[in-house]
Write a structure and sequence with these properties.
By secondary structure, the chain is an alpha/beta fold. The chain is built from 11 helices and 12 strands. It has 2 domains: 139 residues, Response regulator (Rossmann fold, 3-Layer(aba) Sandwich), CATH 3.40.50; 131 residues, Rossmann fold (3-Layer(aba) Sandwich). The strands form 3 sheets. The chain has a 6-stranded parallel beta sheet with strand order 2-1-3-4-5-11, with helices on both faces. The protein has a 4-stranded parallel beta sheet with strand order 7-6-8-9, sandwiched between helices. It has a two-stranded antiparallel ribbon with strand order 10-12. Helix 2 packs across helix 11. The N terminus is likely disordered.
């Protein structure tokens, strides 16, 4: 009777010792994995790692940009590794800043960024540069004054947004009479590309003698555009056209026009050439858009980053092409 308890105590001590060994081994394994994860992917191969940080991937434009970047990396797989990421909300500066912080912590070699905000993203870009990361600015240009204040230079690779918007506006001008009323639906105010597109639209409308009845921001998004355009149609019954700073907002304008039974009666201009508007253009429900070749912008930015890493020299800004897209060009 006395032996059974002694045997049980011995068994329990043995099991406890085994558990301690297992736990310690697991902790050792965990520490090993943590050390390994702090080494950026691709470093062991000697290839540089490039991070592409975009805005909302819910926007077809940036999905196209991501696809173009991945295709470029696949064609140059021996030259670099790619991390492509974006944010859920087009305007979420904090989330995009967090992404850049994560890439800095991951010790990537270069960051190619389409900033949500031209000014607010400058500090975290400086932080990346201070950490020895090459930074290339694409799509939406970082604010020159903000860059100067931080004492940094970041090469810009992207289109002349003002010229692109002016091309679309000039196409529309051929459909207008002097004095005709138009509305401008702007992107996110304060963003460089939004301001430039508004200015391009204004350039073309002033040259045509059209009257800009109103200019309001829908912050790049479809639903806010629907909410803005509806009241504009009521307030401006003589409106002849709506110039939208991107195609997502143009889709919102189309929806509002459809709801007001004015689709096809008022011209709509967009910017980006996403697939969703191409059929509308073919059907005459939308006049034109601008193709700024989203798939190429990221690739150009990545190529610039690789050049800097290889040559240790900062190239000048690079202007990428813009093209007018109409029903004729889509045939």
């Amino acid at each position: 009777m006395n032996r059974r308890p002694r045997y049980k105590r011995h068994s329990m001590q043995t099991q406890l010792s085994l558990r301690i060994v297992v736990v310690l081994a697991a902790l050792g394994l965990f520490v090993g994995c943590d050390t390994k994860s702090s080494t950026p992917q691709g470093k062991s191969s000697g290839k540089p790692q490039v991070a592409l940080v975009m805005k909302s991937l819910a926007n077809e434009f940036f999905k196209t940009m991501e696809d173009g970047a991945k295709a470029h990396q696949k064609a140059h797989a021996a030259e670099y590794d790619l991390i492509a990421n974006g944010i859920p909300d087009e305007q979420d500066v904090a989330k995009q800043s967090d992404l850049v912080e994560q890439m800095i912590a991951k010790k990537v070699d270069a960051i190619v960024i389409a900033p949500t905000d031209s000014k607010a993203m400058v500090p975290v870009c400086k932080k990346a540069l201070d950490a020895g990361v090459v930074v290339i600015n694409i799509d939406n240009k970082l604010d020159e004054a903000a860059l100067k204040e931080k004492g940094i230079t970041v090469p810009f690779v992207g289109p002349d947004n003002r010229m692109g918007a002016r091309l679309a506006g000039e196409c529309l001008a051929k459909k207008l009479q002097k004095g005709d009323q138009v509305a401008i639906i702007e992107g996110l105010r304060g963003a460089f590309n939004a301001e430039q597109r508004r200015l391009g639209f204004e350039d073309a409308m002033k040259a045509a003698g059209a009257t800009i009845a109103t200019s309001q921001s829908a912050r790049w998004e479809t639903e806010p555009a629907v909410a803005i355009v509806g009241p504009i149609l009521l307030a401006q019954p003589q409106l002849k056209a709506i110039l939208c700073a991107n195609d997502s907002m143009a889709l919102g304008a189309i929806s509002a026009l459809r709801g007001a039974n004015k689709l096809g009666q008022i011209q709509v201009v967009g910017f980006d050439n996403i697939k969703a508007v191409q059929q509308l253009i073919k059907e005459g429900k939308m006049l034109c858009t601008i193709d700024q070749h989203a798939d190429q912008i990221a690739a150009y930015g990545i190529e610039y980053a690789i050049q800097i890493l290889q040559r240790k020299a900062t190239p000048a800004d690079k202007q990428t092409p813009v093209n007018l897209i109409t029903a004729e060009t889509l045939k």
